[in-house]
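Notes from the 1:1 (GR / supervisor)

We went over the backlog. Supervisor wanted to see one worked example end to end before approving the batch request, so GR pasted a single chain during the call. The sequence is below; no edits were made to it. Supervisor asked that the structure be written out right there so they could see what the output format looks like.
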Amino acid sequence: MEESQKIILSESSDWDAWLCAVKIRALQLGTWDLIDPAKESKPREIARPSPPECLQGDENSETHQKHLVKWQIYQIQMEQYQLQQRDLGSISDFILQRVSPYWLSRLMLLAKSHHPLEILRILHERMTPTHYERIHLSQSEPIKVDKMPKGPKESTVYEWLDAWDMIEARSRWSRDEIWRDFLAARLEMLDEKWYKENKSAVDKDWNTRELIDNYRRHWRDSRALDLCKYGYVRTTPEES
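Structure output shown during the call:
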């Protein structure tokens, strides 16, 4: 991640986006299950293995051969342990490089180790926005339906859906039925068949996240089908 794109944790309003960045990096390293601050119990890590005792005697004996197998198992276990420790150290560095100087100094006083789970638990306890803080944050930038992204041109569908992803995230704590606005955003101009099929969502228990993901899957499938059937992507669904 470039320096200009870093999300620095300095106040509670930064928490959700900041934790999302940490989670993405931890998932890449395969360590999220070990550092998720929402878990009550500490996940079990790979323990540092103990080497087998040294063995003297005939190298061709059965006892020596068994010892050799134990040594090979130890080497494999040690490699797994070292890889996990390296990845935990990497995510720890990632976290510490993305907190404000104030919180870095606070962590030096509060944390008993540099383990990322302990660091995240300290920050989670102190920085997670309360329910009413989230509502206030969402209302501080009121969402105007008339300024929401309208139906896109074909070349910008993905950017358009990404914009709706951001709107859904911002509105999650203040507007439970924003998916109605998504359906009203001239989708009939984009794909009339899909729009008519999902217009009935008004009478269903839809949420915006499901609707956006539903359309994204539909859009990708329709493009793939066109490429297989026609060798190109049709301008409109009715084109033959």
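Supervisor's comment: Residues 62-96 form the longest helix (35 residues).
Batch request approved.
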